[in-house]
Amino acid sequence: MLKSDLIAILVEKRQMTQKQAEDAVETIFQTMTAALCKGENIEIRGLGAFHVKNYEGYQGRNPKTGEVIPVKPKRGILFRTGKELRDRVNGVPENSTPAPTSESGVA
């Protein structure tokens, strides 16, 4: 799915104009980007969470020459899916509950 697909869905389902839908999607993405740049985490219930992870600097090697190269500290973005999304993707029925297990191990 592309950003343009999200915009098209807003236009169709919410009777928004194309410009309104573009502005809405762009505002959401800009706000999320700004929060992540500030080091904030984003949690969207039912979908998942974006986390900013700080990586320490280290001494790397050029694989061709074996030369030691310092690698600067950096930040990366991790996304962890929420349980609800993970279950839907895996086809787990929404109201299913796991079968009770015997704690004594005797059936």
Structure, explained:
The protein has 107 residues and is of the alpha+beta class. The chain has two domains: 1-38; 41-90, HU Protein, Chain A (Irregular), CATH 4.10.520.10. It has three helices and five strands; from the N terminus they run H-H-E-E-E-E-E-H. The strands form two sheets. It has a three-stranded antiparallel sheet. It has a two-stranded antiparallel sheet with strand order 3-4. A hairpin with a 6-residue loop joins strand 3 (58-61) and strand 4. Helix 1 (3-14) packs across helix 2. The longest helix has 20 residues, at 18-37.
Named CATH topology of the largest domain = HU Protein, Chain A
Our count of domains comes out at 2
Distance, first to last CA: 47 Å
The CATH superfamily name of the largest domain is IHF-like DNA-binding proteins
Low-confidence stretches: none
Tell me the quaternary state: single chain
| Number of DSSP-assigned strands | 5
**N-to-C SSE string, H for helix and E for strand:** HHEEEEEH
**Rg for CA atoms:** 22 Å
Name the structural class. Answer: alpha+beta
Map the helices and strands.
Blueprint: H1 3-14, H2 18-37, E1 42-44, E2 48-55, E3 58-61, E4 68-71, E5 74-81, H3 83-89
Antiparallel strand pairs: 1-2, 2-5, 3-4
Helix pairs in contact: 1-2
